[in-house]
Amino acid sequence: MHRLFTYPLLFSSTALPVLVDSAIKSFLVLAIAGIAACMLCRAAASLRHVVWLTAVAGSLFLPVLSLMLPQWQVLPTWLDASHLAQLHGDTPSTIRTGSDLNSSMGDSADELMKFEMGVGVAASNSRSGQAHPASGALLAGQSTKGVSAPSALNDLSAVWIAIWLCGVVAFCVRLLLSQVCLIRLIRGSDAIISGPLHDMLITSSRTLNIGYPVRLLVSDCREVPMTWGVLKATILLPRESRGWSNDRLRAVMLHELAHVTRRDAVTQLAVQFACAMYWFNPLIWMAASWTRHERENACDDIVLNHHVKASAYAEHLVAISTGFNRQTLAPVCGLTMAERFTLEGRLMRILDSKVNRRGASRLAVLLCCMTTIAPLIVVAALHGADPTVDESKQKDRANDAAEVDRGESPADEQTPVTDEQDGKQ
To answer: How are beta strands 382-384 and 72-75 bridged, if at all?
Structure first.
């Protein structure tokens, strides 16, 4: 039973510095992405979406990049994860490479085995009324190394890691329940394989150059069109869509297929995983909100670029958004066409004729990705200064000061007097 509690504590003392280091660096990366998005305020919405998406998804790889990239030790010592590990009794090498992590956990496990052996010997001797000197020395040595059971159980790092894991598990369960809701929607919907709705799907797919099949469903459970599917794209329309006009049906199909051609279902899942990992960081939620906002703006631009009148499209959004229901978890993984609490900003942008709606070229998208990836790599390589170097410099300065007090110059070198020089004198 003792080992069941001590091994999670050893993991927490190693994982907490890495988590804190990644959280601080993710904050910097998202702040840089926000500045870049503000500088692109007059650019296309798809470019700003790329900037936000690269920053949010790249935050997932910060722990791995921090361990793999060469260290750039320019930060203060207290900002380095290795210094945080020292506060918990770990060495700086325990968090820098994967091999060091394994060796650190192995050494700690060996120490725990010795500690448990010492506890067992001491307990047996106490029952027999004898004292074993080796067990006492072992317990004393282990207590000086900071791996005793009371000190380990009182370590706050285990508490923080447990709280973080509870949050991660809660958000992963939220994603799982959203997938269950989507499966239930599929089972309660009717597949459309012919008729006017299917014909509009085929025509709109050809307009956006989509060469793979897209599943079309109609359901009574939803009143707002929605898209999802990482491996198999699915579009869900409300039952009343059978009576929509051709203009409204074409605008809705173009918007939903824009999500499909942009692979927004995949990016939505990546953003949700980032929010689950950094759920305690308020900036990650703001970045996720901006990512969703720019994603819808980019899809609106695609619709308006295919000869859909802005005023008519705004009218369609207002009519469709009245049936939006946020009580279910389906929109967590699904992409809804309209939400009431973000509708006002979208309508103002749709009706603004001065907005840049041109599609982003591949070169522009590549440049935006590099604009975010480059700071991501630089921030991941940042580490605090090596405390051992600072200590050695302080010792050298103290020795120099002591020599100056004794009247000796530290730069002077004592040249030995040879026998020949002594004879000349």
So the answer is: parallel
